[in-house]
Write a structure and sequence with these properties.
mainly alpha, 168 residues, single chain, 8 helices
Length: 168
Amino acid sequence: MTEEEFADFYTRSVHRLTGQLYVMTGDFHEAQDVVQEAFVRAWGHRRRLEQDLGPEAWVRTVARRLAVSRWRRMVRGRRAWRRRGDPEVSEGPDPGAVDLERALRGMPARQRQCAALYYVCDLPVEQIAAETRLSTGTVKTHLFRARAGLAGLLDQQGRVRTTDGGRL
């Protein structure tokens, strides 16, 4: 892939990939960071990207793995602070309100990943299986469970229910 082809690839896909990673991570700034880091790594492998199944899938996979690694470091850091006896910092908005972002973050990682790839990235089950290295049956199971989990949070008009019975 030449420099011009890579620049064109970046321009065409950076926003889409950032949106996809945002759905997977639930943190827009984190999504931006991991997508940029993945593109930096892709630049070093640009000659090989032409031979892969698709450069966008390669960047998405690298970005997802970077996000998981960062999340694991954050969890280890929090555990270390708790062991030290320091008070925890409160996170985010009122935990009583349930919104779609929080519902997605509450899903197991594989369900969230499969749902994001299917509904946001619009990838077929077979391609999701190839990217995640899961069988197609396992991907379908994760999608079924993700839909069932989200269905309990949505009413017939597609609005998200809150924990106090209200609607957003």
